[in-house]
Amino acid sequence: MSSRALALRRLPLGVLPFLVLIVVWDLAVVTGWAPESHIPRPWKVLTTFFEQLVVPFAGNTLPLDVATSLGRWALGFALGALIAVPLGLVMAWVRPVDYVVTPIFEVLRFIPPLAWVPFAILWFGIGAEASAFVIVTGVLPPILINTYFGARGVPRAFVDAARTLATPAHRMFLEVLMPAALPVIVGGIRIGAGLGWMSLIGSELIAVRSGLGYKIVIGMQAFRPEFVISGMVAIGLIGFIIDVTTRRVERRMLARLGQMA
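User: That's the sequence. What structure does it adopt?
Assistant: Structure tokens below.
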């Protein structure tokens, strides 16, 4: 059975928990267990979600806020990956760099991205730069860690063979370490993509004046829970799409590497 046919067979089981959640949610509001002023009925959230596709709220329509947030995420994700992958490769095979960077990194990586938001605002002010900085703090640790251990796991024979052929350092990293460590690196990139998206939304609650996170804040301030929850639904859907996309890219890359091996 193909993977697509198997996924279709599993689809009802995947949808069932959402249906149960919606029914329980609606019953909780109808019976008065949850006040409708705090938790609106599902149909109201759904109506609000679709209304925002064309009617602006907090200054923008939902598609424009999605595009804004995705643009910030892409910028921060790209910056984080461009820093983490080369640094991880260098740390894995240049001991002095490893000795210098590892103690600092081991302390900084335990600081949650949201804790960097006040610092980012102080440095960059309210805007996209502060948001991108916070995203980098979420993206960088998993990619750096996976790159480091992926490169450290490269068989020593590969490196010795390249050195025997007098391979220059830059070709050693690009043609030996990088391809051999790529399966592990790609796994870190997938994790970093999800963490970067969550970091972005956290930063948009405070550090910017547009985007999905900002829309949620305005909904809270206006005491409009239907806008808050519909914004959360949009955030979850985009995060799911990012994860599915990165999983497919990961599978295709690993399949190509397997064919090349």
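The chain has one domain: 58-260.
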